[in-house]
Amino acid sequence: xxxxxxxxxxxxxxxxMVLPNDTNTLNNLMGGRLxxxxxxxxxxxxQKHSNRIVVTAxxxxxxxxxxxxxxxxxxLTAKVTRAFNSSMEVFIEVTAEDIPANKKTTTHxxxxxxVAVDQNGKPIEVPEVVPETxxxxxLFEGALRRRQLRLVLAKRMKPEEAVELKSIFNLDVxx
Amino acid sequence: xxxxxxxxxxxxxxxxMVLPNDTNTLNNLMGGRLxxxxxxxxxxxxQKHSNRIVVTAxxxxxxxxxxxxxxxxxxLTAKVTRAFNSSMEVFIEVTAEDIPANKKTTTHxxxxxxVAVDQNGKPIEVPEVVPETxxxxxLFEGALRRRQLRLVLAKRMKPEEAVELKSIFNLDVxx
Amino acid sequence: xxxxxxxxxxxxxxxxMVLPNDTNTLNNLMGGRLxxxxxxxxxxxxQKHSNRIVVTAxxxxxxxxxxxxxxxxxxLTAKVTRAFNSSMEVFIEVTAEDIPANKKTTTHxxxxxxVAVDQNGKPIEVPEVVPETxxxxxLFEGALRRRQLRLVLAKRMKPEEAVELKSIFNLDVxx
Amino acid sequence: xxxxxxxxxxxxxxxxMVLPNDTNTLNNLMGGRLxxxxxxxxxxxxQKHSNRIVVTAxxxxxxxxxxxxxxxxxxLTAKVTRAFNSSMEVFIEVTAEDIPANKKTTTHxxxxxxVAVDQNGKPIEVPEVVPETxxxxxLFEGALRRRQLRLVLAKRMKPEEAVELKSIFNLDVxx
Amino acid sequence: xxxxxxxxxxxxxxxxMVLPNDTNTLNNLMGGRLxxxxxxxxxxxxQKHSNRIVVTAxxxxxxxxxxxxxxxxxxLTAKVTRAFNSSMEVFIEVTAEDIPANKKTTTHxxxxxxVAVDQNGKPIEVPEVVPETxxxxxLFEGALRRRQLRLVLAKRMKPEEAVELKSIFNLDVxx
Amino acid sequence: xxxxxxxxxxxxxxxxMVLPNDTNTLNNLMGGRLxxxxxxxxxxxxQKHSNRIVVTAxxxxxxxxxxxxxxxxxxLTAKVTRAFNSSMEVFIEVTAEDIPANKKTTTHxxxxxxVAVDQNGKPIEVPEVVPETxxxxxLFEGALRRRQLRLVLAKRMKPEEAVELKSIFNLDVxx
Lengths: 175, 175, 175, 175, 175, 175
Prior knowledge:
Strand order of the largest sheet of chain A: 2-5-6-7-3
CATH class of chain A: Alpha Beta
Number of helices of chain A: 3
Radius of gyration of chain A: 18 Å
Oligomer: homohexamer
Helix content of chain A: 25-40%
Distance between the termini of chain A: 37 Å
Order of helices and strands of chain A: EEHEEEEEEHH
Number of strands of chain A: 8
CATH architecture of chain A: Roll
CATH superfamily of chain A: Hotdog Thioesterase
Strand content of chain A: 25-35%
Number of domains of chain A: 1
């Protein structure tokens, strides 16, 4: 992993309009449709960072608090936060706008991970991420903790080994 | 929440064929497409349990280990595991079949939560879930723990109050 | 055709939600959209029975008596009824549910036939169907009659040779 | 049914290109997709004849002998053949062209019926059809026989009453 | 370019129904959706003329004066007007019908150009167009002028060389 | 038109991946699909400038020189250049990236115009555009010339009145 790239080099913006077929009975965007968009924009960001074919490795838990209405314009902004060998964590921020009403809300903040692969689907190393802004640095640092949580939840790491993770739970197990 | 319904009454099966537009460059199903299907089948299960309009409240983290190929038949089986006032947890199991090759694999086990709402989008109470089989009982019992994890991750519950959650992390903070 | 398979081994359930683009001016499901779904679910059932690529050979006549409304959940259940060398008849039952209104109706009973083919599109023999339940046995027996009707309608069999068919028309031409 | 209209006034031509998502594993058009197109073009022809909202009443049996390949141009030509109070029979002819290969084949001849309805979905009378060409006259005359077959198959007419139908089966039951 | 074909041999008719997902907030057809249809029908006409794979070379400017409403039937009629070596100009006329209201309007007249290519995407000569009707002759003659306008606008021809074009602007630069 | 807004306030970025159904026989993006995307991104930019419902008024001529391949990532960047009462001109720049090959090309520069309307579809005045960067100023100034060309081509302005337009053609008709 000798090569390095700035976080901003992977920045990807996707804009979608909520159409009738994307909505439920209450005329609000269906959650699954949004997850589809999240996956697409995040995959493109991971492609830009790695210049490779990428496959989705995981999606972190996501909650849907605010409904997004039919006709709203949804903007998804994705950026790679940190790389671990062949895998990359991508942060996506979602805003929804009711443009005629001049209302814009940040509705979601989500994390997906991707693995860069070669033509045969074999994992392949990617460049390191160099964060620059304060937000990028914070996301870079938090990536380790979120990764441990993913591994613990997937039962691929023992909780007591998840040193970074403890801060989430404010636990000091050593005491 | 006087009314009760059996878990099996919400059972919903969805079958999808992986078409060209659902796949990435390696001809495998895109993660976002699968998440879309998960949301739809789980929403229908939640509707069946509550006989109400439902909106997605959250999707738990999900990992994508096995690629699902173009032409595969994907079967998604969803069932409500437990209800909490107006919200329901739904468990979805995904299998992918390469039918000509006679190969069938369970590829995913996912959890989504939904809220039952009235015509104005206001939350409304749903029946309790009565689990019958061993798997349904296990899912019913685990629902409490998964709910605490969701609340902690969403920063709506303090980790030290998440009594049920501790078992996931094998932590005994009282010691 | 030495191999045999149970009818139930091909059982396939597909669940669809009626979305805006599936409906006509009266907000009811368009007939052509339903036929598309029938073909997909029946093709998967035929694939499961034969473990082969299958191509649609015919769709029997179908009538649309009850409108299925926007937002309804449509469940299509398909099962192979009988095999004839390389061809299979599939029976599909369709139910439509207005879940918030707690109304469920069986709206259609349809028959499609499929041919199993190899990679070059050449027909290839499939296992025999072993019916078990009363309904499966009835469908198995009726398959011969429906097959003759298809052949007569396609002008590939002379009506006087369609011995089984006569029962449909209550005709006793020998008298 | 005082008003009359010529058959040709309902003539509707639809052209579709076979795209990847319309095809099966052998890269041929899926039967269900074609049925969807048949329904749409026939519905428009029925609308043109009746100047009303129309709903699909039935699709006659259809067989799929020739595969239609990816990239082919499919032309569907529909025309109302005859009206019966509020219902109309529509004849659709399908041709498939591999244009670079300069090959054009008539692949299907299908019949659908539609009912004209008012805004509340109540059936409403439509104009009579006036056939002009030899083919239109033949289709007009055959419509009665096909209608009896539909009624017999739907068990809404006794076979012995289906006077016109007998000619299909070359049966002379009176003997 | 020894071979010749009549303009009418390329005539292609496409019929589309305006569905919910095709419309904007005012329930009118989105301009981009119509342009997509124009491209498809014109490409098929160019294919028919050349019996070749064709790629879109340009779309002339188009204005959208009349809204086309949800539920309208849109008919697009395309015909090759003239060929220039490997390129073809296609004229498309669009009518929109509100069938229940018995209103039909010609909404657009558009021009697209296509290039015929071989399997490697290399341009390849196409037959000359033989116009027959008065309209075809007029379109054939105007094609030269429109071609010069395209070249001038694309800065591939100097305005003073665009002899034919001058008539559009009623300019007599020689004076 | 008392209110003013900066050009950058309407900036909209849309990212699309070229999927199988978007491509022609040569596996390149179909022109009509791109025009559809252009219309959507430009409409959103016009909405952002006007905070109104907008309808497409016209699309300027566009040429397709470089093929965009299956799997490419297409980025469309739109910005309002200038407003004329209720109408707005939008400039869109399109880049296509083959990310694994690390190749990025600007493939198109297009202009669309939109009209802001109220709920009844009646045109309504929009804010003036304030250009800031050199490119924005150049686009602002060229807008007048392009507008005259549109009016002349639509035969709504006499060429001799199109003072600004003359510069395109390098014509000095006064001599």
